[in-house]
Automatic annotation (TrEMBL):
This is Tetratricopeptide repeat protein 38. The keyword Repeat applies. Gene3D superfamilies: Tetratricopeptide repeat domain (1.25.40.10). It comes from Owenia fusiformis. InterPro entries: TPR-like_helical_dom_sf, TTC38. Belongs to the TTC38 family. Keywords: Repeat, TPR repeat.
Length: 467
């Protein structure tokens, strides 16, 4: 693990000069970026939050310090409605005109400017432009990569790394992380053999590469190697467990292997031990909530009784009913809300989203368009499913099944929508929907021949006697 934090001269030596003159701020910047790309909190520097705080205490005008701070707190919504964040952004944007601000740092500021007005493709293009001249800027690379993952285009996820990979040497400090990012892009483009070879090399360099372990999980999942996946996660738990910012999600992948294997109690045990606690804990965010909801919904499709686990999860979803930061997350909130027939939260979420996409300041942004054109029909489909209107749910979501990629996330994460559509079609009373389910299951088996989950859905189809 990288621990020898770089001072101002070391950053200049690799062609990434910083505008700060504080060696301590430069070292803490290195520590912060390393924790970000490694998905862990380094106790030697107090964790990521403490690192960011100390960095700006060392140099209150440090441009990249303010970039990091605003990158993780500013959204189109908070930029408009949170006075403290708006003040922070105004100060960050003023740093563009500082004489010692570098062009690379201005590029990072430009990316945030685009992001907070909800022009994500322009934001990620800014990062890609930085990488043309500075392919070793790991923070620009990570920001571009995660940005494309957030909005869904698989080719860009892969290519933003592929364009710079040849400029990195194995001796470079963050080479392993770059390699595991590229492996994930390969996996999302269905290039599984290359992806596996690449990520195994990355894990040889750093067994604690949390993203690398995560990528290998994806490969095992998409190729139907569930026994290998479960065994890998069990044997390497102490390696990736340090990735505190990704611990819940990796555990979710582990649970999916058990779901496929039919070992439902093992999946629920992982939920109770890690996933559920991350979702409903005091530091919860939408990301672990989506993991928790997705796992429980998949289990219920298979007829597994998940007990009262929905109750606390539904209440946590209600905390985010007006956020609308990520269409993928709102769909999962709706999945939770339909479990309580007496609750009005589902309708409240729909009304809140409709108000959001009408907002005069936000309606023309990328996020609002995705909510309006793709999100609303899918949320209404989930709501209809909750009311027992399965045929209506099918007719709402089926036309959007390929567009759901714009929700962002990975193929594995978005698979919950495919399973939802098949499940609703099987529950529908209409023969045409049963025929659709048959076609979708054939497609699913062609793409992933080894899937006991699919086999169980096929068995349900056979029980309908529609063949």
């Amino acid at each position: 693990m990288h621990k020898n934090w770089r001072d101002c001269q070391a950053w200049r030596d690799i062609g990434l000069p910083l505008s700060t003159t504080s060696n301590e701020a430069a070292k803490l910047y290195d520590a912060a970026v390393t924790q970000i790309v490694g998905y862990y909190d380094d106790s030697s520097v107090g964790g990521l939050e403490a690192t960011l705080k100390r960095m700006l205490e060392c140099d209150p005008d440090f441009v990249m310090g303010h970039v990091l701070k605003n990158k993780f707190q500013a959204t189109p919504w908070t930029a408009k409605h949170d006075a403290h964040i708006k003040k922070d952004l105004d100060y960050l944007f003023s740093l563009t005109d500082k004489p010692n601000t570098t062009d690379r740092e201005r590029g990072h500021i430009e990316a945030i400017k685009h992001a907070v007005v909800d022009h994500p493709y322009d934001a990620y293009a800014s990062y890609d432009n930085i990488l043309v001249d500075h392919p070793n800027d790991i923070f620009a690379l990570h920001s571009s990569f995660m940005g494309y993952l957030h909005i869904g285009p698989s080719t860009q996820i892969k290519d933003t790394v592929g364009r710079v990979l040849g400029s990195w040497k194995k001796s470079d400090i963050h080479y392993g992380y770059v390699s595991s990012l590229y492996a994930f892009g390969l996996e999302e483009c269905n290039m599984y053999d290359r992806a596996e070879k690449t990520v195994l090399q990355a894990l040889e360099m750093n067994k604690n590469d949390t993203w690398g372990s995560h990528t290998l999980c994806h490969i095992y999942e998409m190729t139907g190697r569930h026994d290998e996946g479960a065994e890998f996660m069990l044997k390497t738990e102490s390696d990736w467990w340090m990735g505190s910012n990704f611990r819940c999600h990796n555990t979710w992948h582990w649970a999916l292997f058990y779901v496929e294997k039919g070992e439902y109690e093992n999946a629920l045990s992982l939920y109770d031990r890690t996933i559920g606690k991350s979702a409903i804990g005091p530091l919860s965010s939408p990301f672990p909530i989506t993991d928790a909801v997705s796992l429980l919904h998949r289990l219920e499709i298979l007829g597994v009784n998940v007990g009262d686990r929905w109750e606390e999860l539904k209440r946590k979803c209600e905390d985010h009913i007006d956020d609308h930061m990520w269409p993928f997350a709102d769909a999962h909130f709706m999945f939770a809300f339909i479990r309580d027939k007496a609750s009005k939260s589902g309708q409240g979420l729909l009304e809140s989203i409709k108000a959001y996409v009408r907002d005069s300041d936000l309606k023309d942004g990328h996020n609002a368009k995705v909510y309006r054109d793709i999100g609303l029909p899918i949320y209404e489909a989930i709501n209809a499913y909750g009311d027992g209107l399965y045929g209506e749910a099918v007719d709402l979501i089926a036309p959007k099944r390929y567009e759901v990629a714009k929700f962002g996330g990975s193929h594995a994460q978005r698979d919950v929508f495919s399973l939802f559509l098949i499940d609703a079609a099987l529950r529908s009373s209409e023969t045409r929907h049963h025929k659709l389910a048959r076609s979708l299951l054939r497609e699913r088996k062609a793409n992933k021949p080894c899937s006991p989950f699919s086999d169980k859905l096929v068995a349900r189809l056979m029980d309908l006697h529609d063949d």
